[in-house]
Amino acid sequence: MRTLAARPAKTPIAYSVDRRVLRPTRGEALAALASAALFAIAFPPFRLIVPAFAALIPFAVAIAERADGDGTARSAARIGFWFGLLGYGLNLYWMASALALYTNLAFLGYGTTVVLLAIIIAGTGAALFAARRVTRWPLALLLPVVWVAKEVVLDHLGDIAFPWLPLGLSVAHLPLAAQIADVSGVHGVSFWIAAVSGLLADAWLLRARRRAVIARVAGAVVGVAVVLGYGAWRLATIQLRPVAPIAIVQPNIPQDETWQAANRARIVGMLASLTRQEIARHDGARLILWPEAALPDFLVRHPEWSATIGSLARAGHVPLLFGMLDVQWRSPTDYDYYNAAMLADSTGRIDFQHPYRKTYLVPIVERVPFVNPNWFSHLKYFGGFGRGGTPVPFSLPFGKVGVLICYESIFPQRSLLYRREGADLLVNITNDAWFGRTTAPWQHEAHLSLRAIATRMGIVRDGNTGISAYIDPLGRVHGETEIFTDAIRTYEAETTSLRPMYVRVGDWVGVLSTIGVLVVLALAYARRRRAD
User: Fold this and answer.
1) What's the pLDDT at 12?
2) Is CATH 3.90.700.10 correct for 241-324+391-497?
3) What is residue 2's predicted lDDT score, i.e. its pLDDT?
4) Displacement of CA 65 from its chain's centroid (Å)
């Protein structure tokens, strides 16, 4: 029987004992801090390009150096942890102020979210270390595969899924660079950025070999040029076709006033007044939007609201799609309630199509993860929302319309499903009042450019306090409103007849990347078993 004493002497390859748990070395800290600083300014509202392509380089180089030498997976995980903690901490600072409107535990919620994300990035660092140690392949391949697999994980974490900052979001404001999303979705854009970063990281690691450096820098330049060339071709050749004029009502209701009973009549009156102004403009709108949860209580409790909405739709001969709180009774004393959208047709009927109920719920605020939502039934509008089922687009005379409520816009799979269900147009109704004047409204809106490109549909966004806008099928933003102002706008919405590769095939880049990481981790595990 083999014993430790009988084991032949050998140099540890990846798993030597490291008693430092979270406290980083100077080198680890510098790499994590450099990547975090660049990551913090890579996303909207910053309209910078270089930080997105540079953010992963210090992180990747530090991990590769450890994998190529006598470093440990624990060291790689520490670099990832501190990169994630600082990078997401700086980007998501707005969560603390936003959650403070709902709970005194706001900073705990923010801190928990950032720590969970940091743990996931720590796992990403460890996976990159294992992949490099086992394969010795270049970072130009390993970095994008591992990073995109991490993004896929964040898409599919159930109650705590939070794909808020995919790397591809950093170029959402530059449609020329984002057109490849119709081939691969946002994960393909992230893969491209990470691959370019990997080439530059490889160039740094091989800096003593001039030709190798030139080859990799040239590869990065070619990689950028190819994607930009594809973008220029798509922007020049895709034909847009009109769908319908779509009007939005942006009432600008402060978050701390929304759920106060004394304000209900005033809020509905404001919505009605702005809608009448829109109808009086005679601009040919064929659908009017109200934002998420526009009605400040359950619709079933206020038949007068149904009458008001019906009369507005009839008066303007135009359907009205509005955010509301829906309820479904399980028994005379038990019910589920939903963040929902309902459609009133041009005759004023509001019950001829089933409401859309939000599926992706904001963790904690709308649904406390992993627990029975009924536990929070005594807390009005907090923590206990029900989750809707499979979405069905609304049918209108000009085509099918898919609804994204609030941050459902950050989940690429929802927009993909609508397109496959025959939607011609997406609308995003949201209430970003709770974000305040932080960076969050711009980060939130930016996702829609990638959804529009990936599905080749136009998207109309209606925010309670802004940003409202129209995003065309090429990802270009039109008619943005100012935040914290009331507004009405009419957008000439367009679509295309295309069913791009992403719609037909799905998230193939994400799937292949995830499979690749699983295979490498299995090889690393097998190697460790052999070493033991």
Assistant:
1) 47
2) no
3) 40
4) 32
Left (φ > 0), alpha (ψ -120 to 50) or beta: where does 40 sit? Answer: alpha
pLDDT band at 278 (very low <50, low <70, confident <90, very high): very high
Question: Is 183's pLDDT higher than 50?
Answer: yes
The CA-atom distances, in angstroms, between 326 and each of 41, 289, 299, 357, 430 are 39, 17, 7, 8, 16
Element at 460 (helix H, strand E): strand 458-463
Sorting pLDDT into bands at 50, 70 and 90, what band is 4?
Answer: very low
**Count of CA atoms in the C-beta half-sphere (13 A) of 445:** 30
Q: What is the pTM assigned to this prediction?
A: 0.92
Could you report the per-residue pLDDT of 19-70, keeping only the tens digit for each? 567 899 999 999 999 999 999 999 999 999 999 999 999 999 999 999 999 9
Q: Is 528 exposed, middle or buried (0-12, 13-18, 19+ CB in 10 A)?
A: middle
Residue 352's CB is within 10 A of a number of other CB atoms, namely 10
Burial 265-288 (b: 16+ CB within 10 A, else e): eebbebbbebbeebbeeeeebbbb
User: What's the confidence (pLDDT) of residue 154?
Assistant: 95
Cα-atom radius of gyration of the chain, to the nearest Å? 25
Q: How far apart are CA 392 and CA 417, in angstroms?
A: 9
Q: Where are the domains of the chain?
A: 26-237+508-531, 241-324+391-497
Q: Burial level of 367, CB count in 10 A (0-12/13-18/19+)?
A: buried
DSSP letter for each residue of 484-511: TS-EEEEEEEEE-S---HHHHH-SHHHH
Contact residues for 461 (Cβ-Cβ < 8 A; gap 6+): 248, 427, 428, 429, 430, 445, 448, 467, 468, 469, 470, 471
Task: Summarize pLDDT for 458-468 with one digit per residue, the tens.
Answer: 999 999 999 99
With beta carbons less than 8 A apart as the criterion, state whether 270 and 253 touch.
yes
| Phi–psi pair at 13, nearest 5 degrees | -95, -25
Number of alpha helices (DSSP H) and beta strands (DSSP E) in the chain: 17, 12
